[in-house]
Design brief:
Strand order of the largest sheet: 2-1-3-4-5
Radius of gyration: 24 Å
Number of helices: 16
Helix content: 40-55%
Number of strands: 16
Largest sheet: 5 strands, parallel
Oligomer: single chain
Low-confidence stretches: none
Mean pLDDT: 93
Structural class: alpha/beta
Strand content: 15-25%
Length: 531
């Protein structure tokens, strides 16, 4: 396999030695995570391993709205008061200089396991493992936090073995059993599925199929998954349920679900997360409709608005990132969604398109005094803004990003990997394509074109999806679906051209339903024949 030596990551040996000491001494350990899927899976993975080593670690996930991202002073105080000697931050901590240095001053040892972008100066802690440290040359910067924590666990396990810690009474755990958590966090955090990540996801899906983890099994069953789990299921059905806790409910639910061994508790948490996720979906639809109305007014208002900035006093801050992502997809330009509180203070989330560095623009806006707080990376950013500065921020984005956006929109073309006919889409071909998977970020699903296929049938199903039957010239036909296309140009084209031919692009997937298998085409774009 492509498993690197964990010691190739800077700081890993010091981190492993400190955690091995904790296991030998039976110390109280606190794990501080992030409120998303990567944070929940990374926290659960470390906790599960430390339990196998005889410890009883406590997991602390911050509240997204009240505490915000990363360790905070009040949480550190609480962790110290509970008697912990060692604090491990996962999926956060790299930029938390003050808070972590205060924790060290209080006598807590601190180990950071993270993957976020790092500054040149790092917090002074016991050990900091992050493949995106500027002095780390391991080449593992594409790992999600859960992948970094898995390497940490491998290193601690190896160190304990070297010290003769494992015995007949306390057998060494099989670390491969933890790969289901690694797969879920890796897919949900949308890191590129290449190298080690690809191996993690392939092996992790095999582990998940064995249904050994009570919490994941409950989650799979609550989501009514039919057939073996795939990367698509992890990203679109399981991930959003765990995320719903952090967005609009109790942020600790996901980590609790993934660490419990009690079937009844697991069923209850999985049902709670399912309910929260349905609530999040309803909230998202209402917020999106409101945002779209504002955007339509903005785009019709004459000037070609380069970046979209929408805001409302009634929006839920936990769902802003999803709204920004939808607006970015629909309008193919960077988008911000901002929620203002009664005191005119706004929390916002931004999403960008390839070729436009949003994080850089936000950091510059903070330096220029337009934003109270802000940060992020090329494709996503978070901001805190005063309502009075909204118009200035909008025009700043247009001035700073206008050229980049225009260039990115000019270059947007859908690259096709192969053209074929409906009759060629048989299970054997799909199985062959799947061997190049798992597909996801960094390893996209091949884009197939069905040239001049007739729309034999089309209607709207579910939450605005368009279902169609596509027919080739030789009469062969295939069922197809265009997700969230109703009311969009793609959906309008399919519905208004029944009986006529279109060139269609998308991907072919195998659908398994109640024991039967059939190939379906997922439509992502369409074009009129002859121009």
């Amino acid at each position: 396999e492509t498993m690197p030596d964990p010691s190739s990551l800077v700081g890993m040996d010091a981190a492993a030695a400190r955690l091995a000491d904790a296991a030998e001494r039976g110390e109280a350990v606190a794990i501080f995570g992030d409120y998303d899927v990567d944070g929940a899976t990374a926290s659960a993975l470390l906790a599960t391993f430390l339990q196998a080593a005889g410890l009883d670690p406590r997991i602390r996930i911050p509240d997204r709205l009240i505490e915000g991202y990363g360790p905070n002073a009040a949480a550190i105080e609480e962790i110290a008061a509970q008697g912990a000697h060692l604090l491990v931050t996962v999926d956060c901590g790299t930029t938390s200089h003050q808070v972590l240095e205060d924790a060290m001053a209080r006598g807590l040892d601190v180990v950071v396991a993270d993957h976020h972008q790092a500054d040149e100066v790092l917090p002074e802690v016991t050990a900091l493992v992050n493949p995106n440290r500027l002095d780390d040359l391991s080449g593992q910067g594409h790992l999600a936090a859960v992948g970094v924590v898995f390497l940490l666990v491998v290193a601690v396990n190896r160190e304990l073995r070297r010290r003769g810690f494992w015995s007949a009474v306390r057998p060494e755990p099989d670390l491969r059993d933890l790969l289901d958590l690694v797969a879920l966090g890796t897919v949900a955090d949308v890191v590129p599925l290449k190298g080690l990540n690809r191996a993690f996801v392939l092996r992790g899906l095999e582990v998940m199929r064995r249904r050994q983890r009570v919490g994941l099994t409950a989650l799979v069953d609550a989501a009514n998954l039919d057939g073996p789990p795939t990367p698509y299921h992890l990203g679109f059905l399981l991930g959003p349920r765990i995320n719903a806790g952090g967005r609009i409910g109790d942020a600790g639910l996901g980590a609790r679900l993934l660490t419990t061994s009690d079937t009844i508790e697991a069923g209850k948490i999985a049902a709670d997360l399912g309910r929260l996720n349905a609530e999040r979906q309803a909230m998202e639809l209402a917020m999106l409709a409101e945002a779209e109305a504002e955007v339509t007014a903005e785009l019709v208002g004459g000037a070609e608005a380069h970046a979209i900035v929408t805001s409302s006093p009634s929006w839920h801050p936990g769902v802003l990132g999803l709204i920004a992502a939808r607006l970015k997809e629909r309008h193919e330009r960077p988008a911000f969604a901002i929620a203002f509180d009664r005191g005119q203070l706004g929390t916002g989330s931004g999403r960008s398109i390839p070729g436009v560095d949003l994080g850089r623009a936000v950091r510059r806006a903070v330096a220029d005094g337009l934003l109270i707080k802000g940060g992020g990376h090329a494709m996503a950013a978070g901001i805190t803004i005063d309502k009075a500065a909204l118009a200035a921020f909008r025009s700043y984005l247009d001035a700073a990003l206008g050229e980049e956006i225009a260039a990115a929109r000019r270059d947007r073309a859908l690259k096709i990997d192969a053209a074929l006919s409906a009759g060629a889409l048989v299970p054997r071909l799909i199985d062959q394509i799947e061997t190049a998977g798992p597909f996801g970020a960094g390893n996209p699903q091949p884009v197939l074109a069905l040239p001049a296929h007739r729309i034999a049938f089309a209607d709207v199903v579910g939450q605005g999806h368009v279902r169609a039957q596509l027919q080739a010239g030789d009469g062969a036909s295939i069922g197809a679906i265009a997700f969230r296309a109703a009311g969009q140009p793609l959906g309008d084209a399919l519905l208004s051209r029944r009986g006529e031919a279109l060139h269609l692009a998308g991907s072919a997937v195998m659908e398994r339903w109640q024991g039967t298998e059939r190939v379906r085409f997922r439509i992502s774009d369409a074009a009129l024949p002859n121009g």
